[in-house]
């Protein structure tokens, strides 16, 4: 409906490269943080001579969940290190979730949650102290501000997991 269309995601406003009557298509902007973000379409009208942007139409705000992506996990008996994208900011709440990949009947698979202390500076490298974890292979997820990284549970997939082995 408007002459100029922008999209606001969190605190970032971008001009989408493709705007049609029925769709807006754009890549996820860089610089966003993982978690639940508000998304809003804003359309301005060009009025006057010369034409100047004026408020036009704004959509309702909808929730967008930007999931973190985990790569390069490594583990020892006392800590787990991993890389996460997007970068985790100092004000974000971060948890590490471990779920054992196999079980020994009659025991159920072990599951653990560890909360990381707040970061002092933004970082995509996380290190989490762990304790009392039963040795084995675990699916690894990270939760950033309520948004969990996803798992690939197809064992024949090249991106199966991610997993870590605790000695």
Task: Walk me through this protein's architecture.
The protein has 167 residues and is mainly β. Helices cover 0% and strands 53% of the residues. The chain contains no helices and 15 strands. The radius of gyration is 21 Å and the shape is elongated. The relative contact order is 0.19.
Which descriptors apply to this entry?
single chain; five-stranded antiparallel sheet; 167 residues; 0% helix; mainly beta
Supply Rg.
21 Å
* Percentage of residues in strands: over 45%
Specify the overall morphology: elongated
The number of helical runs is: 0
Give the tally of β-strands. Answer: 15
Distance between the termini: 60 Å
Q: What do the pLDDT scores average to?
A: 92
Q: Any low-confidence stretches, pLDDT <50, length ≥5?
A: none
- The string of secondary-structure elements, in order, is EEEEEEEEEEEEEEE
What would you call the structural class?
mainly beta
Largest sheet: 5 strands, antiparallel
Residue share in helix? under 10%
